[in-house]
Amino acid sequence: MTKAFRPSRSLQGVRYEIRGNLAHRAQELEHLGYEVISLNIGNPGLFGFRTPETMRLAMIENLHSSEAYCHQQGVFPAREAVVMQQQDRGIQGVTADEVFIGNGVSELIDLSLRALLNPGDEVLVPSPDYPLWTAGVTLNQGKAVHYDCLPENGFLPDPAALEKLMNRRTRAIVVINPNNPTGAVYPRELLESIVELAEQRELVIFSDEIYDQMVFDDAEFVPMAQLASKTLCGSFSGLSKVYRACGYRVGWVTFSGDLEHATDYLHGLELLASLRLCSNVPGQWAVQTALGGFQSIRDLVRPGGRLYESRRAVIDAVAASPYLELIAPAGAMYAFVGVNQDRLPAFDDHRFALDLLESKHVLVAPGTSFNVPYNNFFRITILPDALTLKDVFRRIDSVLEGYANNRNLESVS
Predict the structure, then answer these.
(1) Which has fewest Cβ within 10 Å: 56, 85, 172, 209?
(2) What pTM was computed for the model?
(3) Domain 53-292 coded CATH 3.40.640.10
């Protein structure tokens, strides 16, 4: 008998259901001729958003300089543009040497964790989280310890509860702000409390800020690096979301704060960056234009803007539903929608996502995909236009109404 080829044991416990079995089934339905509304991933280009033309031109004009490998940390003009943005935000002491450009933030999450962790080291990760953080910790032989960001607390963490999870094995804390999947935007006072804990325990702060300018109404984005001076802070951002350039695969991480004691760590990170030679070069030439040019995202997130009106359509649709609940997202491009289990006590997020896909051809991400212990939430992106989202919620309510009617029939029988 032929021996089966088994995957590495390091993959045990690694999940990325956003592109898992449900997404595979959606592809099968599309191959059969069905039109699926895919709300599982925040991918602006699929919903008519365009990368600013100035960024495209900057990339095209520098193609002649894109055929060779660049520096392992990225092209200098791109890294210098990131430094200038940090300085404009009041963050001092950062040079291009502390900026690493990667193939999206995703690659940099992996490299940053790999350079830090030894087997058994613990990293505090929010719950719900963007699941790549949990996966990255696990793949690099660490242990992801989830700290609750509960719905009843507006999806914000409790610093006192967070502190109780810290021990001698804790190496870092991850903060996702504005948050994916919930849309929560952390107030300054909360960030200050988290920084104080990290500095007391000498923990690295990894601040995922890919949605930094995508905030609504009176919400204020506060860069973590503004607050953290006595420990090492890595701030992650990129072109994918704010600049609608997912396919360019350009992200960056900037290290600030206690750089004096981080020399060996940063050398290790540079070594890992060198082993993959460099990140995608053509897209890096768009960074300087993106950060230094007109910030068109502001028009999209203010009243009347495409993202603002789509968000409002989601809020209104949930308010009109007898089955749904929502803490209105203050930032990012998602809504983490809850289902009232008093009305539907047997609700299960995975079953619902599959039923919605099979019967209504709408693809959503089950809430448990984001490492939460409860199963009555699902995440959608708010990228479609308002009319499409209104239609989506009609389909969602239709499936939930079917659940309610079946329950009533069962109770009569």
Answers:
(1) 56
(2) 0.94
(3) yes
